[in-house]
Amino acid sequence: MYSFVFRHFLSKLDPEIAHSLAFVLIRIFGLPILSRITRRATNGKSRIRASIMGLDFESRLGLAAGFDKKAKGLNGLWALGFGHVEVGTITALPQEGNPKPRLFRLIEDRALINRMGFNNPGAAKTAKRLEKFRKRNRKLVVGVNIGKSRIVPIEQAIDDYLESTRLLSPFADYLVVNVSSPNTPGLRGLQEASSLRPLLSAISKAANDVPVLVKIAPELDKSEIEAVSKIVVDLDLAGVVATNTTISRAGLASSPEQIHRAGEGGLSGFPLQTRSLEVLKILRGALGANRCIISVGGIETPADVVSRISSGADLVQGYTAFIYRGPLWAREINRGVGSNLEIDRA
Ligand SMILES: Cc1cc2nc3c(=O)[nH]c(=O)nc-3n(C[C@H](O)[C@H](O)[C@H](O)COP(=O)(O)O)c2cc1C
Q1: Is 209 inside any structural domain?
Q2: 320 CB less than 6 Å from ligand 1?
Q3: Fewest CB atoms within 10 A around its CB: which of 62, 74, 301, 313?
Q4: What is the pLDDT of residues 121-175, one digit of tens each?
Q5: ω into residue 32 within 30 of 0, thus cis?
Q6: Number of domains in the chain
Q7: Are 97 and 103 in contact (CB under 8 A)?
């Protein structure tokens, strides 16, 4: 059904318009009575549940950062079966993001290219929305992903991240420090150990016991992943989210014209799958057993989720598969992992 609607209707719309339409539906699913009925139908069996970082997750599957940048669809997303939603990226200052068009589909690759540029309402407004949501729903775990405001020079990044931490940590179940989006100039340079250590140290002190994770790019090589892991362990942070989108365009099935038409930005979805799994395995080796890893990048099926969990992930996230597989995607994962497949943590 959804694949028919996607092929004949949604895929013909501008991707951002399709996103807005989907959001209208998600907010309808979030209405009080409907959300509870829907949630019952999207639940999985107990095996998909988990207790991690001191938080209870109804499902190990969460919605990755970038989908709900305004914290407006949380109840509906919970109803659709996600165990957590990572809101954001949120910046201290509200910002419009890059000029449109800035989101493109590569349908043959089950992929997206985006250069959204952290369009978001800013930390103060988001904090108010999260405070309100918390009074309504205690079951959905809400992570908040924070980034650098575009107009703030990279040398002043720490203060800018600290402002977001101060405003948002009281309402976040966990915080993710995003230093890996390709669409904010200079941001990925913050992954270098000499910049990352003081940044994460300052944020973790300001976060007041809220678990802090760092989100990394798929381009980091083994020694860079190990350097980030060392910082996470040294500072006693909660863990790592891996990975963000890639700037690589290698191995795509889409035509060179389509790829060229999309232009610059981060590539997500199926083409990211292999690298994201590799990064997960390196990370688990480097971090040891006690840190949380949220694996993200190209996850589509219950089998993909099982493969990530058996390779060391505590939680998984997806974004692009939700677009291609539709509103029942989390239900498909919850049920598939919960009843048909054994998770055998290696
Ligand atoms: C349109 C779009 C916007 C995104 N925005 C953000 C963002 O603001 N912050 C962030 O950390 N990641 C962002 N991401 C990356 C996703 O959170 C995720 O790491 C990436 O898409 C890989 O997962 P996937 O293959 O399941 O989509 C975005 C992805 C997409 C497709």
Answers
A1: yes
A2: yes
A3: 301
A4: 999 999 999 999 999 888 999 999 999 999 999 999 999 999 999 999 999 999 9
A5: no
A6: 1
A7: no
Per the structure block, which two tokens stand in for 153?
Answer: 């020079």
Q: Which residue from 268, 279, 315 has its CB within 8 A of the most atoms of ligand 1, so it is best to mutate? A: 268
Cβ of 181 below 6 Å from ligand 1: yes
- Note every long-range contact of 300-304, with CB atoms under 8 Å and residues 24 or more positions apart, other chains counting: 300/110, 300/270, 300/273, 300/324, 300/325, 301/332, 301/333, 301/336, 302/332, 302/333, 302/335, 302/336, 302/337, 302/340, 302/341, 303/336, 303/341, 304/273
Cα gap 150→95, rounded to integer Å: 8
Kindly state if the Cβ of 78 falls inside 6 Å of ligand 1.
no
Q: What is the CATH number of the domain that holds 184?
A: 3.20.20.70
Diameter of the chain measured on Cα atoms:
52
Q: Tens digit of pLDDT for each residue in 91-125?
A: 999 999 999 999 999 999 999 999 999 999 999 99
Amino acid letter for position 330: A
Residue 235 lies in a domain: yes
In a domain, 346, yes or no: no
Domain around 218 = 2-340
